[in-house]
Amino acid sequence: MNAAKIPAACAPWVRTRLRTAPGIPAALAVLVFLTAFLAAAFPRSVDAYETKALRHDVTTAAPGQSVLEVATPPPSLAVPRPKREQVMREKSLAGVDRALVTSLPAPVRADVPLSSYGVHTTKPIVAEEPWLPRPNAMPPQLHYAVPSALDRHSRLTAGRWPTTHGEVTTGTREVEAAVTEETAAELRMKPGSTVTVPTQNGKQVTVRITGLVTPLHPESGYWSVDPLYRAPSLTPDPGSPTPVFYWTATLLLASDSGPALLDTTGEPELYWRLAPDPSGLTAADVPGLRDAVASLENGPELLKLRAAVGPNTTLTTDLDAILDSYTAIRTAIGPVVTVAAVGIGAVAAVVLLMTGGLIGARRHHELALLRSRGGSLRGIGGRLLAETAVAVLPAAALGLLLAVLLVGEARFLPALVGAAAVGVLVCLVLPLRTALGHRRPLLHGAREDMVDARPSRRRTVAELTLLVLAVGAVAALRRRGTSTGSDADLLVSAAPVLVGLIAALVLVRLYPLPLRLAARPVARLRGAVGFLSLARAGRASSSGTLPLLALLIALTTAAFGGSVLAGVADARDEAALRAVGADARISAEGGLSPLSDGFVRQVRAVDGVEDVTAVRIEYGTPLAAATDVRSDTKRATLMGVDPEAYARLARGTGLPAFPAATLEKGAGKGEALPAIVSPALAERLGKRPHTVRSQAGDIEIRVAGVLARTSAVSGSEFLIVDAKRLAQPGPTTLLVTGSSLDGEQLTAAAREAGPQSEVRLRSAERERFVDTPMQSGAERIYGAAVVAGAGYALLAVLLSLLQTAPERATLLARLRTMGLTARQGRRLLASEAMPQALLAAFGGLLVGWATIALLAPGVDLGALALAGGDPSTPYTVSLRADLRSLVLPAAGVVVLAAAVAGVQAWWASRRGSIKELRAGDTR
Predict the structure, then answer these.
(1) Which tens digit of pLDDT belongs to each residue from 743-752?
(2) Is the pLDDT of residue 577 over 70?
(3) Is the pLDDT of residue 908 over 90?
(4) Is-contact 208 129, C-beta < 8 A?
(5) φ and ψ at residue 693, rounded to 5 degrees
(6) Percentage, residues of the chain above pLDDT 90
(7) CA 478, CA 463: separation in Å to the nearest integer?
């Protein structure tokens, strides 16, 4: 008979611990929850903005670039005529369209409502009707198309829809068509007009216009892939020695009229225009999408298309070029974002280590007692692992769940790996670090400060190894940069972290020395507070490396993130200023029409306008006299300015100072005008007078000064003279400055001056540089990096102070029994905390500034700052130190340290000393 199972006499360990001390597991769970959320949200955020950027690029690209156009000629003359006609009919074209849509290789998908198919002529046919307009005495040349579903993509505005009467064949002599209102207006067409189309057998086909239509979505691929569907165009005659133009347009035939085009001289072609559907695309699909497009253009998939459509089928698209542009920007932005991820990941790991150390220190005596009573390391470690897992694993799972709910359109696996890494790190670090600290018996009351601790050889070797890695990472980042197009290198991305790590190790070794030296003269002064605070700060715990390391890495990460955002903002301001020249720019089209003085006064009266600078700009001015101008004559931009006003504009926009006095020096009669020129033009013209051809005639100039750049023009060679000395001084451009310009009033004023006037605002130009989800997503990540870095820095300070709080409370209790007042106690705690806090703040500020200075040459923010920026261009956008990101987190560290010390001193003064004096012999 089996004995009855006797229940355990003691309560379960984990349940008992959680019931008796729920505060520490709850705080640890909150920290793990936040860290796991960040670890899971980062890869999902990157995936999300990369996916949105891919869909944005495909959606906003011109339909002529993104569409997949399948084309094939009609069957050869060897095929029987009825079969050739059948291929050109609507039913056959629709069947092939359905087959093409279903046969596209993944992840390529067609957007069926935006796709179209039909028949069109590839060669224009001359229309000899006398009523058609003939610019330069050239008759128009027309295309003919039979597009699908014309009634679903347009609205009838006059006449009736074109239809077919009976079955259309090659023998049909009249078909109906429609044209858009723009085509009808330019070519003088109306319902009832007819156009004769010659055929190869000498007969003619009459095309009768029955209706006028207006496109419902003119920007869609149906109307934009071939712009002649929507509007006619004046085309230059390539065979004429002089500029001669003729009209080209497309007439839209009725559905099922394709066979009528077989015998025409227009060389008809069957086409299927498949608009890509980006709604299901993700960033992970880019390699597969690129391979699928390449296979469709010239690979196995093209062979499948030819088997379904015809042996001469071709597929053309510029979707691969869109993918190349997307990949280039993604590759340029990726390493910059990785730097932020590595920094935040490193500081989060250090803070988690600090948390484990704090919990282990609080339970040191408890675990030492278990060890002394026969507890094994495995048993103690297992109990700690169970305690930790109960609080940590659900918190990590909740962090992952929150990240998945808040950030959609992203892969789940990277987020799972990030959250799991946080949970595993905490579950392993706390038991291992705490249990291994008890593998040998420790003497009670052994010192743990810097006086007793001596760096071992292993530590010295490890620090030297880290120093070599940091130097190598910084050198690699400066040499290779982040815009080389290679994948992110973790060693290079960890450069800011390694710099902060080396700085922390150096400061930990050095900072006790000046404090001990300062304590000697203070010891001679009256009062014990100053000496005690400096002596205790100089004998800080040897475990203070982790708090200092966390602070330096967090402050460095926050400073680096702030510098990235500041550099991006500066680059956009600079690019907008280069494009506009001031806060607003008003000019006539081509810069040729002078603006009246009344219009200038009207602009000055607009709300927000502070100053208006009138400039005359003549583009393409030949650098030669009128008699010597040839087609290959070098040209530049001639500018006439008011020297004083233009100098004031340069000062207001932050550009290099304009030498107004140089232009104001009078030129005698018959002498050359002084001119300020660009560097390349100065080298070309030299010091001798030179004649240039202005719009009012030849003028003689001499180089009086050189200016690298100027407000009115950018990207071209220029020469600036005093406008009063030109034969035609009337301004063509107004450069407006003001802090809060009213764009609508400026536009209204410009419209009154003439329809050719154009208004450009610096603010609108700046917004143009941030129009991609990839840029805005990367900026949000850096903004989060700044906030997270500052938050982890403050948390590191709090954990560091909490770790030594019991020791300080016992010290105050003992000193109070010796006569220390409450005020002196507050001074003592504040003076003890300030040296470490000031060290961390000053060190973080210095390391952050040094990191930015070291890494700035290797970090190119061009793709992140400027929309559509090409990473291969020589123009780069570099980091710059941001004062707020450097100073505010560092100041927060000092303020928090002082606040915690003050709160602890206040709380200790309200409590008695009996508990602290009986709690043990903590020293």
Answers:
(1) 777 877 777 6
(2) yes
(3) no
(4) no
(5) -100, 105
(6) 24
(7) 22
User: Global pTM?
Assistant: 0.78
What sign for the dihedral angle of Cα 791, 796, 802, 805?
negative
| Order of strands across the sheet that contains 611-622 | 690-694, 697-706, 673-677, 718-722, 635-641, 611-622, 733-737, 584-588, 757-761
Residue 819 Rama label (left phi>0; alpha psi -120 to 50; beta): left
What lies within 8 Å, CB to CB, of 177 at 6+ separation is 144, 162, 207, 208, 209, 210, 251, 252, 253, 254
Cβ distance 713 to 617 under 8 Å? yes
Helix (H) or strand (E) holding 225: none
Taking the C-alpha atoms of residue 116 and residue 173, their distance in angstroms, rounded to an integer, is: 27
The three-state secondary structure class of 891 is helix
DSSP class of residue 638?
Answer: E
Burial of residue 582, with CB atoms counted within 10 A of its CB: 0-12 exposed, 13-18 middle, 19 or more buried: buried
Residue-by-residue DSSP string for 404-472: HHHS-SS-SHHHHHHHHHHHHHHHHHHHHHHHHTTSS---TT---BTTT----HHHHHHHHHHHHHHHH
Could you give the C-alpha distances from 794 to 38, 426, 501, 558, in angstroms and in order? Answer: 17, 20, 18, 12
Other CB atoms within 10 A of residue 514 CB: 13
- Region 102-112 average pLDDT: 91
Integer Cα distance of 619 and 213 in angstroms: 41
669: pLDDT strictly greater than 70: no
SS3 573: helix
Compute φ and ψ for 546, nearest 5 degrees: -60, -45
Q: Provide the pairing of β-strand 68-72 with 233-236.
A: unpaired
Decide if 422 contacts 36 (C-beta within 8 A). Answer: yes
Collect all residues with Cβ–Cβ distance below 8 Å to 664 and sequence separation of at least 6: 643, 644, 722
Q: Which of 262-276, 347-361, 464-478 has the lowest mean pLDDT?
A: 464-478
Burial class of 495 by CB neighbour count within 10 A (0 to 12, 13 to 18, 19+): buried
Rounded to whole angstroms, the Cα distance separating 109 from 443 reads 72
* pLDDT, the chain, mean: 80
Instruction: Give residue 771's pLDDT band: very low, low, confident or very high (50, 70, 90).
Output: low
For the record, the structure tokens of 287 come out as: 């390699």
- Strand 268-274 to strand 673-677: parallel, antiparallel, or no bridges (unpaired)? unpaired
- Cβ–Cβ < 8 Å for 647, 683: no
What is the pairing mode between strands 174-180 and 204-215?
A: parallel
Residue bearing tokens 């406008």: 723
Q: How many CA atoms lie within 13 A of 403 on its CB side?
A: 33
Cis peptide before 107 (omega within 30 of 0): yes
- Residue 276 and residue 110 in contact, taking contact as beta carbons nearer than 8 Å: yes
* CA 119 to chain CA mean position, Å: 42
Most confident range, picked from 405-414, 662-671, 893-902: 405-414
Number of H helices, E strands in the chain: 32, 21
Determine how many CB atoms are found less than 10 A away from the CB of residue 172. Answer: 16
